[in-house]
Amino acid sequence: MACTSQSALDYVKHAKPHLISGLKDLSVILENLNQKGVLGDEEVSNIKAEKTDEDKRRTTLISVIKKGEAACYELLKIIDRTRKRTLEKLLLPPEKNSDASTEKNKFDLHHWISCFSFKEETQVDTNYLQGPRSCHKYQEMLKSNAKEKSNEFWAASKNWFEGNKTPDLSYSSLILDTEQSVCPSKIKKLKKRKSKLSRPKKLRTYIPEEKPTISPSELLKTDKNILLVGKPGIGKTALTHEMLRLWAERESKELDYMFYFDMRETAQIVNAKNLEELLFSFYCGPDEGKDAVLQDIQSHSDNVTIIFDGLTDISSPVVTKILKNKLLPLAKIIITCRPDDEDTKFFSGNFDRVEVKGFSEQTIKTYLSATLGEDQTKVLSSVELVTLCHVPMYALMMAVCFSSKDAPQPCTITEIYINIVRYCLQINSRTKNQKLNFFIKTKREEILSLAEAAFLSTQQKTVNLTDLTCDDSCVLSFLKPLLIKEAVTETITTYAFLHYTVQEFFAALWLLKNPDKIRDVFQQCLTEEKKHMKHLIPFMCRLLNEKSPSLMKHLIPDQDLKNTSNWFFKELINTFLPHLCEQEAADTEGSGLHVHILFVCQCLYESQSPEACVYLLDKLDYHLDLSGDSLDPYPCCAVAYVVTQSKERKIRLNLEDVIISEQGMRQLFGCFENVQWSDSLARQLWELFLISEEQMDFVTLLSLDGNHLHLPTQGEKQLYERAVEVIQRMPTKVNVCLYWDNETPPCHSQCESLLKAFPFISSVSFRGPVSWSQEKYHGTLEREQKRLFMDLCLKAALHDGPNFYNVVKTLLPLFPVKTDLDNIFLDLFQYVNSKEFLGDFQGLRPFFQSAPAVWSINLSERKTSILLEVLKLQPEKKQVELTGCSHEESEVRSFLQCLPYISQLRFISRLSDPSEEIRFLGNLICAAAERDQQAGEKILELLSSVCRYKGFPLKDIWCDLLLDLYCYKNKTGLSVLPSLQSVFQSAPAVWSINLSERKTSILLEVLKLQPEKKQGELTGCSHEESEMRSFLQCLPYITELSFKPQASQPSEETRFFVNLFCAAAEREQQTGEKILELLSSMCSYQTFTLKQKWCDLLLDLYPSVLEMGLSVLPPLWSVFKSTPAVWSINLSERKTSILLEVLKLQPEKKQLNLTGWSHEENEGRTFLQCLPYISQLSFSTTSSESSEAVRFFGDLFCAAAEREQQTGEKKLELLSSVCTYKNLPLQEIWCDFLMDLYYYTMKTGLSVLPSLQSVFQSAPAVWFINLSERKTSILLEVLK
């Protein structure tokens, strides 16, 4: 602590005597003074030339003091930075003895330097030498060597991995126990307690308990010697290399040294004669200043750390002296050894014992994650493998095997053990990989001896190898020693495998050497006492396989193995299969499965024998029942392997109540093409997927079954919540299948969780128990679907009121229910009041009171009484739209009771026969009238107030309703007209009436009730004379008359109007009434529906009038003159003479379009007389009739030419003026027409060419001619 304000010069002067006597390692001070420029090289040499150390220290201080304040200050800094080497060590508190006063009076240089007040420096200079330069250089050499050794150690582990799969291996934390080892007397108790545990729990005892432990850096910092004890492969060497790395990478300016000796590799150490040879010859020697370095190491042994890794004995005299603190008394020694090499008497006093226990469970997971990534689950899912990994050497081989691209993925469990055995033998024998097989053969007897001991101990349910006779170090590397105190003065050493499953592996190996014992072991597996022996069988199955990695062929002759293999698997299956039915009752926690089918599958997977798999499946009738099992990745892999061996038949797979990991499911997906797909399997898969906490591959599962997701209706809440999450994440809409498996109705409370997912659902279907009859099955399905639909709607009503109709709109397409958005309100009310509903109605009352302003209801599908009850709940009257109706008398009367709660009644017709609405409304009005007369209620008036023409759906049949009502009044004698006055007077402006279905007299009476004239639109007519006369009486009440005939009978309109005009003319002549004028005023071409038939009407009307002996009266003139600009006439159906007379009545010439023609000669002559009244002539014809058009035109032109020669009339010129090329419909045959016409003139000798000049010259620019049908000479003349 700085506590003085003296100058550096004064401070050094006052302490000069103490510094002369107390300074150590003056060479360090001189090196630093020279480096800082305080003393030159010559001055340093002069000081070193002094005879005694005291003279050297005195001369140094005198020289520094002479140089003044700055030099003294630098000297103080050097002493402060190097005090550990240049000042005597701090003394412990003095004991109460005679020398206490002397020690107390001694000057404390450590305290003295701490009291000087150094200046505060922005950047502390740490570049001070702690010893000779050669020592610092040697330290760098040691650190470089340490890094190299550490890298080589981890590189050796990395080399086991292949190519891109090489992980970044480094030290993983180990459990380091500083407590004293377990007392030998306690071992028996521990073993006894362990033997009572179940197999999984027993195996987990191998994993050391996770607890706060000391770290490698803390071990490095302690000054005490350390003894690292641990079984083979447990990580002792990895720990020392980690300490070596930490020291090499430590940023410190202290001068210290660390040496590492692998006692298994450096056999020459025994021959080391002295410390110098041990350190510099057998480890790493300095390039320069060897003596100075050795001197520094010996003088400052407290700065030295030596690691003896793998110490088995102390045969080296130099090592013995180091351990006894004779050569380097203050050096820190770190020793690693196996428990059986631990000499407690030699080490106990000077060493802190640390037991290396291997990886904890968390470290195992971390290590596997770093080395295997996602493949770690292949190991973690097996309790045998994961507990095996507590030994780092085994964990390394586990990672290597599962990451190997050459091995099948995943490799079998037995292959892991084969690789572990081969690796341990290679490591402990220092044998090269290519010579390992030969080495195994040389150790055949020793290995089989160990295998026999393993078998005998396994049979006796013990891990103690009491019958072990082998003492080979390579073989013993699989074991750990156990000290058992038999008496006060006697402790015996026995051995156990590092892991119990390694013992089982060696036991299986011995059985294959002695195949006559195998059948006995099979039978033992079926007993309670020896059921543990079944764990040897999977090992035997793989060891019989000849593929790499190999082991057995180096220990047992190949032919012996083949002989065993020939009967082994059939014997295995035939022994275990009869007992499969008894397995469930026999299983207890941890006892293992005696002969479960899953265990047999694992055995066959280990064997990799397709023949054995097919033999098993055939015995099982290709039905694999795995219900209730927990399938980790390895068992899944085993099942997938067995299933895929079935090439001819599909496997029936039962996965009821199975638990499968995501990794395991990946394995099963690959075998489903060999599995017989069914609804039950799909449901089982979805249930286990949704319950799993892992991220399962739902997309692949959906693709297996047409995008269907299967759910049990009795499922747990968690199941449905997960299902909703899955459905919402899928890229396409999902089909949902709901199941129940018993007679009790399914619980819909969980199904309601699906509400959030319905926008993402494409369809919903139900599946019931397969035991039900077809009739019961479908009846129950329909009822349950409707019930679920109602429950879902009610849940939406309770929890999502504002969005209720959107939810219903989503649900309707998914359920085969007979309802819609319009009727859902009443259906829900009916359901709530039924026995099926188990909820509380009061909670739903606000929902039913929030009915929409306009109700759409189909009364044909529900009781009107339900509507009445719901309407009573409403706070105000509602508009009602009827989309369907009932004609039952009771339903009609019930509906009348609803009227006080209805503000307006309308119809929305959805029926193919719209007359149903008329019938219902007629019945309703009649029932209301009857009720009024019987009870005196004003029901009819109320009905009239809510029912108007505007609310009627098909307004064109409103008139039919009025006519029906009027008929009902005449039929019953009820006086309903006053009450229905508003109804009758709310008729439309245009009345649509079918006179073929109505009495015209009724129409007349209803029209009289109208406040104003109406437009009449006839949709059908009657040709009865009496009806015609009655209709004439309706004309005063009609403003305009039109016809809307049926599409199949367009001519009916023409006939009806002709008859109507004739009847009107006859009536007018008989009575003098102006009926004809009235009819003519409201019936014209403009009001005629099919205007193309108007000309037919006139042509039909004219002869009819003449037949009656009537002339065309003036009132009819307006009718005949209201013709279209273009007339369309079919001359094949008409007398041309009639056309001529009608054309004469026209005020101007008309364009005439012929749709048909006649080839009669007299008709042609008559048509020529029509030409003066025609402005233009054209044709409308089809391609098939084109030749007929040409013929007609030819005949017409010839007749005109003949008439012109006979009478001199200019008919030909007139015909040419109205008929040109542009008017002909099919211009491509105009050329044929000209050639036919020319030929006719040549044949008859008529000179018509001058008159036809304009016709011939109106030919098209492009001519179409068939020379096979024409004379080319005629073409020539026409072309001229």
From TrEMBL:
| Entry keyword set | Cytoplasm, Immunity, Innate immunity
Please give the InterPro entries that the UniProt record associates with this protein. AAA+_ATPase, CARD, Cytolytic_pore-forming_toxin, DEATH-like_dom_sf, NACHT_NTPase, P-loop_NTPase
Q: Does the keyword Cytoplasm apply?
A: yes
Main localization of the protein described in the UniProt heading: cytoplasm
Q: Where is the NACHT domain?
A: 224-340
Q: What positions does the domain CARD occupy?
A: 4-94
A GO term from the CC aspect: cytoplasm
Question: From what superkingdom does this record's organism come?
Answer: Eukaryota
* Alphabetized CDD domains for the sequence: CARD
Q: Which GO terms describe its biological process?
A: innate immune response; regulation of apoptotic process
Could you tell me where this protein is found in the cell?
A: Cytoplasm
Q: Which Pfam families match?
A: CARD (PF00619), NACHT (PF05729)
What name does UniProt use for this protein?
A: Si:ch211-108d22.2
Q: Name its species.
A: Haplochromis burtoni (Burton's mouthbrooder)
- What's the source species' lineage? Eukaryota, Metazoa, Chordata, Craniata, Vertebrata
